[in-house]
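Structure in, sequence out. Go:
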């Protein structure tokens, strides 16, 4: 640590000379000693910080010898790490490591063309990836090369309009029929996560919102559930991250059904009686924990769901299927789409109608019977 003439600590690399001026110095990556003098301490510190940063990253100033792999890791650490949501950062890493790295990672940034980007998407298509995964991969490619353009590494983004995700046949979103829902709940009663699954079927919350629900969010007196945060699982570092909801509409109040009310009261009584051991202070206020007092990632939930579905003799489902099913039951019961939009926390009504409202085979038959009856009366 450098010191001033009075003995005050000035920080690593900065000292005060006998003539009162300040010396800032450091050793470059090449081993060369670099030093500069300043009249003001603030100027010395500013120069030292900028010079050290430039020296440690100067290889990124030119794409002549830079591979895509080198650029990606620099892009993540220095450009995106503190400017995007954790979930977005995780998606970039996931898509790069699974789909991009192997194909163009060793190429020079300046050599990547639209055909190389298209090839990545084509390979994914051939390997059976769904459309959403290909779209996220394309978004990752576009973002990383767009920033490469802005930083002067390349003149144009190779992810042009001609780079398109191969078309996939539309796949109907999985929804439990009333009969399947009854079979599922019957088979799930012996599961340690039964309460978690039933709660989603009664509220339509996302799994991340389920994890983020605290007892402070439960208003038993007015029978209202306040959705204020989400908790996602970082599979790379095996930790849970509490975050804000994506949109203001995501922050919402959901009225409790009687089933939801009774369920929450039962969980609270169980925790109060000490039957559920909370081993981490971080989770002490959370509503939905496993028997060891821990939060569960979706991977654990999905394994449990698969076992339940096998037992019930129905096609396997995911956590999101339960949310889809809740939305469909709401529409079937006559709920107005605008009301459902508010309960689900969607920014606009089109998302609600396009993604979550599904007409089951039972409902089709009922509606056709109504039509047939009307025709007979005419």
């Amino acid at each position: 640590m450098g010191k001033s003439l009075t003995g005050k600590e000035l920080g690593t690399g900065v000292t005060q000379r006998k003539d009162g001026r300040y010396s800032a110095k450091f050793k470059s990556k090449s081993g060369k000693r670099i030093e500069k003098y300043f009249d003001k301490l603030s100027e010395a510190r500013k120069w030292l910080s900028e010079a050290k940063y430039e020296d440690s990253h100067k290889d990124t100033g030119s794409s002549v010898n830079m591979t895509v792999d080198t650029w990606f890791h620099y892009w993540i650490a220095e450009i995106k790490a503190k400017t995007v949501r954790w979930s977005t950062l995780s998606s970039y890493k996931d898509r790069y490591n699974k789909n991009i790295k192997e194909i163009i990672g060793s190429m020079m940034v300046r050599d990547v063309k639209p055909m190389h980007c298209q090839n990545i998407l084509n390979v994914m298509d051939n390997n059976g990836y769904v459309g959403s995964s290909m779209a996220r991969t394309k978004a990752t490619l576009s973002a990383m090369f767009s920033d490469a353009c802005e930083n002067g590494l390349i003149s144009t983004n190779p992810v042009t309009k001609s780079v398109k995700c191969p078309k996939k046949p539309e796949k109907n979103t999985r929804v439990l029929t009333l009969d399947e829902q009854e079979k599922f709940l019957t088979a799930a009663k012996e599961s340690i996560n039964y309460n978690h699954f039933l709660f989603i079927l009664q509220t339509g919350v996302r799994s991340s919102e389920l994890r983020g629900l605290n007892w402070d969010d439960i208003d038993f007196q007015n029978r209202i559930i306040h959705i204020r945060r989400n908790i996602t699982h970082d599979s790379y570092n095996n930790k849970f991250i509490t975050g804000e909801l994506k949109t203001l509409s995501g922050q919402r109040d959901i009225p409790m059904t009687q089933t939801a009310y009774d369920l929450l009261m039962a969980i609270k009584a169980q925790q109060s009686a000490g039957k559920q051991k909370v081993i981490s202070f971080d989770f002490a206020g959370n509503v939905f924990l496993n028997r060891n007092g821990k939060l569960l990632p979706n991977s654990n939930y999905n394994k449990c769901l698969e076992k339940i579905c096998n037992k019930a003799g129905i096609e396997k489902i995911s956590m999101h299927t339960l949310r889809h099913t809740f939305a469909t039951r709401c529409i079937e019961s006559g709920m107005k789409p605008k009301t459902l939009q508010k309960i689900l926390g969607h920014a606009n009504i089109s998302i609600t109608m396009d993604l979550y409202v599904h007409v089951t085979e039972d409902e089709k038959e009922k509606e056709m019977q109504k039509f047939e009856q009307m025709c007979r009366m005419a």
